[in-house]
Design brief:
By secondary structure, this protein is an alpha+beta fold. The chain is built from five helices and 13 strands. The chain folds into two domains: about 90 residues, no CATH class; about 90 residues, no CATH class. The two termini are about 35 Å apart.
Length: about 220
Amino acid sequence: MKRFWKFPVMAFIFTALLFGALPAFAKDSGDERVIEVIRWECFVCGKQYFTFAPDDIGGKTKAEHKIPDYQQKNWVMFSDPGKSISKCPKSGDDAHMFFKKEEFKTSPYIVHERKNDYVVLKNGGPIKTKIKKWRCGLCKKDGFCFDGDDMDLWEGLIFKNPQKVFNMGSGSSIPVCNFKLITGEELKCHMVTLDSAKNYPSIEIAKLMSNLWYSD
Ligand SMILES: [Zn+2]
Ligand SMILES: [Zn+2]
Ligand SMILES: [Zn+2]
């Protein structure tokens, strides 16, 4: 009986806490299109890559962008920044010739699904979409997410269910919050608060991958 009244009291406290610290989120759209990206296509081999806007790999933008050594040295894979972009299989000198096809907004989930098709620049400037650091006020776990991802906070209010948040690299679910209620039960969902958003170069985001998270 006791735990039945304790639970709504806890829920009230945490709800108040959350709304104090965070902007009021609308209902979870389930698929936040918050990341500005560019789709590129090689004119020679037809290979498609994506970059985080405004990272530019266009063959017409700079003379260096057509030089094979420059491509291999500066353009690396988002999913593995130690690995260079593929060599163009059809051009005589291994260099791709990229044309910008479209610039659009996509969701962190879709970026995760296509993470092997994303290129990051070793020598790039900050990208348009910002990154936020988050932290659970209860178990102190912290990590990063793209600005605009709701980190499933709405569902997070339903206690005893872990939020649907996944790792950008592995795709695995976030470990449950190990904070225990007075009753001895685990809370399971993290009480996430988000820091202010900051701009990062894409290569830095690639290096954060193991602690970069997205909601469904
Ligand atoms: Zn979401
Ligand atoms: Zn090519
Ligand atoms: Zn936690």
